[in-house]
């Protein structure tokens, strides 16, 4: 499990696990650290995809199915063991949603809460436009394309590191483009509550469709900042307090 999951603060007595899915090109360095910031009732797992960090020598995932199969097969025992919630940012949102739908359909398991951030609802016009967008071959054009859709992260100055980040982002975006969602066939697929977060200065996302994915409650919150609003310490603190309150309110 250590290959797939980063857990910097083990909490064997936790009542719930928060599984975090990073954005395109992201690793575990930011979200895994949340494990130190939550109280003892929540243990944080951050998903580490192949092609980065300790999995640098592994080939990148080719499609969403391979990612979902790895996550569910590796974590199934832990997910059956105790309640869990998902947090995901940007393109990682679609990975977390696919895992949630797969768990519900195949194993009858469901997160107690889905926390989605800075992404179009999967049944929206905005999502379809993003998914069908061609990816430029040139790095600078690709980065400009990512900024246009909201993914403007500060890149390292070192050229080799920069190229690696761009490569990882490109490969993760290819995985996102294999994401499939047919809402008409699923009816209302989930019953858990869904909370959507975004930055006030980020692009406008097509988000109301999240309400159609669950019979539970859906809420929307805006934080000051851009697409990377969650990396600001003040916003991070508020996010953790809100996520904790939502999970504890489930009454585990």
Compute the number of helices: 7
Gap from first CA to last CA: 25 Å
Class of secondary structure makeup: alpha/beta
Label the CATH architecture: 3-Layer(aba) Sandwich
| Biggest beta sheet attributes | 7 strands, mixed
CATH topology: Rossmann fold
Question: Could you tell me the strand content as a percent range?
Answer: 15-25%
Radius of gyration: 17 Å
CATH class type: Alpha Beta
CATH superfamily: Alpha/Beta hydrolase fold, catalytic domain
Care to describe what's here?
This protein is of the alpha/beta class. The longest helix is centred in the first third of the chain and has 18 residues, at 64-81. The model has no long low-confidence stretch (mean pLDDT 90). It contains seven helices and seven strands. It has helices at 64-81, 92-107, 125-131, 139-148, 159-176, 183-186, 233-249, and strands at 5-6, 16-21, 42-47, 84-89, 113-117, 193-199, 218-223. It has one domain (5-181, 188-250): Rossmann fold (3-Layer(aba) Sandwich), CATH 3.40.50.1820.
Topology:
Elements lengths: L4 E2 L9 E6 L20 E6 L16 H18 L2 E6 L2 H16 L5 E5 L7 H7 L7 H10 L10 H18 L6 H4 L6 E7 L18 E6 L9 H17 L3
Helix pairs in contact: 1-2
EC number: 3.1.2.14
Family: Belongs to the thioesterase family.
InterPro entries: AB_hydrolase_fold, TEII, Thioesterase
Brief sketch in words of this structure:
The protein is of the alpha/beta class and about 250 residues long. It has seven helices and seven strands. The two termini are about 25 Å apart.
């Amino acid at each position: 499990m250590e290959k797939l999951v980063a857990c910097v603060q083990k909490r064997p007595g936790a009542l719930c696990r928060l599984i975090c899915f990073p954005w395109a090109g992201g690793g575990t360095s930011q979200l895994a650290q949340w494990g130190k910031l939550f109280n003892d009732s929540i243990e944080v797992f951050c998903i580490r995809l192949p092609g980065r960090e300790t999995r640098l020598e592994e080939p990148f995932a080719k499609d969403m199915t391979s990612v979902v199969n790895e996550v569910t097969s590796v974590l199934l025992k832990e997910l059956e063991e105790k309640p869990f919630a998902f947090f995901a940012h940007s393109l990682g949102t679609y990975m977390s949603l696919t895992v949630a739908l797969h768990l519900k359909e195949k194993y009858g398991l469901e997160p107690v809460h889905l926390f989605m951030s800075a992404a179009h609802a999967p049944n929206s016009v905005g999502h379809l436009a993003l998914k069908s967008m061609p990816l430029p071959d040139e790095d600078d054009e690709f980065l400009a394309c990512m900024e246009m859709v909201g993914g403007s992260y500060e890149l390292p100055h070192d050229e080799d590191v920069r190229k690696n980040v761009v490569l990882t982002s490109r490969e993760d975006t290819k995985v996102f483009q294999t994401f499939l969602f047919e809402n008409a066939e699923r009816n209302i697929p989930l019953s858990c509550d869904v909370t959507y977060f975004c930055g006030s200065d980020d692009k406008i996302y097509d988000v109301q469709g999240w309400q159609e994915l669950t019979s539970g409650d859906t809420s929307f919150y805006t934080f000051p900042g851009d697409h990377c609003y969650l990396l600001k310490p003040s916003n991070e603190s508020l996010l953790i307090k809100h996520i904790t309150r939502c999970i504890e309110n489930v009454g585990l």
